[in-house]
């Protein structure tokens, strides 16, 4: 089949037709170089409704979708634990995969997925594996990446990220039986809301060498997982990081401070400000004869072009182009999802054990704790179908 622009279409299947599945379908249906050959959900009524609305075929098992639809690529938008088996099955058949965040619930599962991809690439070297980290497309984060890669701040000393704009009501948590449970979701704010922030942290600053995590379980909601987290990171080169998030605070704050020898960058309220030091603060501290002197600095509001395409469809478009043979890199490659998961699991492991942990840590130890939490859970989930969920309201920068 040939698209209107003369290019060959990519046959795509969508697995998981919940709230985020609706987001994916809305842009997929408008892409000239994509033919949605099947949609899949274990809830038959959901699959039937999607298929009828978008003129495609419903499936109720991802295996049936893979066997009968003739798809080239799949977008995985199922609950977190199911990311791994669906992706591994796809890789075993040479199907390209674009997976929703997080890559998995715990590090061991993520490594299984990555290993399956590596094995499949031996048979099909052009096999594509992407992850939906659409916040990498946001202009302010792109500019921060550019500043850091260019070395404008010099050696970094501190990063503090307060992101409490993830406010969620009890109705949100009660809207699905899998939400905010150890067995259904595998965690709370670190697993559901903050994979983008954790990915952004590691994308900009790399992984720390040591983690101290403090997670509060059900502090603001009737849930059995974390809804408030404060973490402290130590990096080998001397930088420290602070990561403060919650779903229980309104109005919230999204403020990212990055401090280095040549000044401080602050991102907040859609503004990027660089307090640029005239010289290195390390050099000034060593050489100045004045005990209370400060480095001269200049307030500079950094211009950022916000009139550029962003979001899920940008990630998907780059993925589809790669499937068609483009050499343009993906927005985020699937294996990169491991690093944010290391941060999430490391924070929780530190909190559970009430100690600072080294990175890398024992992934078996964390998985064992998670399985014990599932086994011993006495939590009874109260669910309702009255909650109004618009996924566009959840995407914040």
TrEMBL record:
Q: Where is the Gfo/Idh/MocA-like oxidoreductase N-terminal domain?
A: 10-121
Per its UniProt record, what Pfam families does this chain match? Answer: GFO_IDH_MocA, GFO_IDH_MocA_C3
Tell me the domain of life. Answer: Bacteria
Q: Recorded GO terms, molecular function? A: nucleotide binding
The family database entries (InterPro entries) matched by this protein are listed as: Gfo/Idh/MocA-like_OxRdtase_N (IPR000683), Gfo/Idh/MocA_Oxidoreductase (IPR052515), GFO_IDH_MocA-like_dom (IPR055170), NAD(P)-bd_dom_sf (IPR036291)
* Domain GFO/IDH/MocA-like oxidoreductase, residue spans: 141-265
Q: What is this protein called?
A: Putative dehydrogenase
